Amino acid sequence: TECNKNLLSWSKKDNEDIKVWLEGDIEKRDKYGRLLGYVYLDPGGNSMVNEELLSQGYALLETIPPNYKYRHTFKELAKEAWQKKKGLWSACGIQEILNSDEVEDNTEQYLGKIVTVQYEVARIGITKGIVFLNSREDYEGYFTIVIYSDELAADFPQSDIDISSLKRRVLRVTGKLELYEAKDYEQPQIIVEAPWQIELMEE
Predict the structure, then answer these.
(1) The domain that contains 68 carries what CATH number?
(2) Exposed, middle or buried: residue 137 (CB in 10 Å: 0-12, 13-18, 19+)?
(3) Which of the 8 DSSP states describes residue 197?
(4) Does residue 123 have a pLDDT over 90?
(5) Mean pLDDT of the chain, nearest integer
(6) Which residues contact 184 (CB under 8 A, 6 or more apart)?
(7) Measuring CA to CA, which residue among 187, 164, 190, 188 is closest to residue 176?
(8) I need a surface site. Which of 108, 124, 163, 173 has the fewest CB within 10 A?
């Protein structure tokens, strides 16, 4: 697709062998053992790949606690890319609006991809400060939005979205579809990092 061509063109930078510099944060690896860091194209720290990918819409916003050194900057860049419909947020990145049934029936097809899901919130669950906007009252195994306490405290109070009033409201949420694996069930979900990922539909 044209999106893939643009990303490939940017990532190659006319040179397949690029030397990079890595800056760490509080943790060196995540719980899966993956190396975490901020990637630079120069030793002076003037060209961060993470920022460029977010600003062009070629990366998803994902902060892994407690590694928050550039969190605010990343959020602003991702928001701007979303507002300008760049990269993954463009027409070739988001091609259709799914309902929760389609996501649940075709989880493997959409897993790891950016999707937009429209559904009615049937239940608002709160556990240890984490909010779950479930698509079903009997929520286990069904699509849900997950919002962590850090995002609730930092971003949502300044937005137009009142979490407590969302039950029975129809939402559109855009983000990466993930699969939560509990002991007795698996649940497709989108982790919301910022309020602009959620759009309230007219009542």
Answers:
(1) 2.40.50.90
(2) exposed
(3) G
(4) yes
(5) 86
(6) 140
(7) 190
(8) 108
Say if residue 75 is in the same domain as residue 128.
no
The boundaries of the domain holding residue 134 are 97-200
Residues 75 and 37 in one domain: yes
pLDDT tens readout for residues 19-62: 889 999 999 998 778 899 999 988 888 889 999 999 998 887 88
Q: How far is CA 12 from CA 16, 17, 166, in A?
A: 6, 8, 44
Residue 126 φ then ψ, to 5° = -130, 120
- Tally of domains within the chain: 2
CA distance 43 to 45: 5
Question: Are 191 and 105 found together in one domain?
Answer: yes
| Residue 23 and residue 62 in one domain | yes
DSSP E strands in the chain: the ranges are 21-23, 38-40, 97-99, 114-120, 123-127, 130-134, 144-147, 170-181, 186-192, 198-200
User: Which residues have CB under 8 Å from 198's CB, separation 6+?
Assistant: 145, 161, 171, 172, 173, 192
Residues paired with residue 175 on neighbouring β-strands, in sequence order: 115
Per-residue confidence (pLDDT) for residue 147, from 0 to 100: 92
Q: Are residues 83 and 20 in the same domain?
A: yes
